[in-house]
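[Solved] Which block belongs to which protein?

Original post:
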Amino acid sequence: MTPRPHRASALLTLLGLAFTFPACGDSDENLQASRTTLAQRLVAASDEPIATVDGRPIDADAFAATVRRRDGSRTRQQLLDDAIVAELLWKQALEAGYGDSPAIKQAYKRLMVQKLLEDEIERRHRPEDVPAKEVRDLYDQNRYHFNVPALRTSDHLLVMPDPNAPPAEQDTLLAEAGRFSANIHADLDARGLTHDVTAVELEQVAKDWRGKLTPKLSIVVEDDIRAPLRGRGAPGAPDYLPSLDEAYADALFVAELGIPSPPVRSSFGYHIIALRKIEPPINVSFAEAEPDLRETLATEQRRVAMLSLIEGLMHAADARVDPDAPERLEARRDPPEQPEQP
């Protein structure tokens, strides 16, 4: 076989330094078809090597795999030049003794394990092979993750009548709670707390007003209340979302972000609401979720298969560990770096 001159571009490509210029006008489909056709021709000719380097053959099957991995911007001659240069550098590395390097041997082991797992685990448990029923069942079991109503997160200051007060006093106390909440809202304006009010600021205002309240009224500040317009599910259920007092929820879902609301009457008293966060509804269809669901199920299948493989190997192997190994390994650790002396 006649040796061919090796171009500098081949070496640059091998070292990751080459500039590539995709052919103008070629679509991805055309490039893929071109690569596939070339690979098929190479495989068909795999009864003899496509080149030799110092008598060592470059196998057509291996070269065909290289063609399929390329982006299509290089010619077959350039790819062949790359393969020849790689073979020459491999030979040089062997002659330099790198084949006996512990690091190289360890890397070779890792590559073999990687190939084993690819063939025995990944290819046997592909997302596209997961039964359709399993995918649908997983979607239905987790439907609440894919269909979430709009949510609002808020802080609020509540002026609350004593719930244990006699019924005859409740109306009077509620009216007083409304008057105090209106005054507190005006105080927020006077303090310049009209935008992005925090729970800490509401608590400071509440602290200043607690001493001014009439008996049987109290002020409560709560933060990070996250809820939908209406509750969903039952407590303890996986799809449970707590409900709010309807009057509070109705006001919350029309409130402006960061602006304290006017006093809102609920079954508890009068609230000044600070809307902190708006979360739009989430509605992910089965078709949209299916790729991720398949990947999730395939990953679990691979995990189970991996555990089964390892357990089988461990059961069949005669693995023994020196009981003093942990201490010996600890003794070989590098000493901690000492801080530099001034």
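(Second protein starts here: sequence line, then its structure tokens.)
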Amino acid sequence: MFLFIAGLAALAFGFYNAKNIRVWAGAAAEIKAKHDVFAKEKDVESKFDASGGKKMEELKKELAGFSTDLDSIVRETQTARQEIDELGGSMATKAVRAEIDEYYQQSGDQAKNVASMVKFMRELFEVAMIFDRIKADTTLEEIQKMIGEAKIKSENVDFEILPTEIKDTGVDLKKSLDNYLEVLDQYAAGKIDNINQLNSNYDDFSQKQNDFWSARKKLAIYANMEKLNLLGNKIDNDLLILEKVQFSLK
């Protein structure tokens, strides 16, 4: 008799637990649909790739927009992880919960990496924008002041914020910028009169810029977008399966 009652209790629990699993899966699917960070990261990546070669002022505005978008994505991944965590869930949902958490953690880490690169580029452009003020009637003294201002601002360009994958090219670019500003300062002051030396330093700086821009492809967001897409699709499928569970003792 006791075994019969215990069997009925297990049966009732199995149906009740399955209902809770279905409710959890539905709620988790809604959270993932609401926080579609993959599409947003893909959009930023596409626009970022298309930003090369644009005019200085236009690029400066775009970089500011990227920073805002990426910061928003990072916050959204944190919100999504918190919302999934607050759902709780039974043992049957444990594996999918871990997948969702990994999905949003990777998305957030990738957004942070791209954001650090964008911040570094914005700092560089703050230096370059100083020389946009040069006009046909700008005096040598005014140019020398601009060079001094650029050297001071260049000190704030921090390559330490860059992800490991592109830090070396960032270091090279920063050093090349400093070298060019130093030679430019000496040339403007009349300490050197060899224009070839100035041009050589500028050419090196331009090449280092190109190297840094090319190195962005080493960022995880470029290598992992397909993997992240596959993980997102797997999560969607796993949630669909859980939404159809009719009986579970886990």
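Accepted answer:
You had them paired correctly. Confirming on the second one: Residues 2-243 form one domain.
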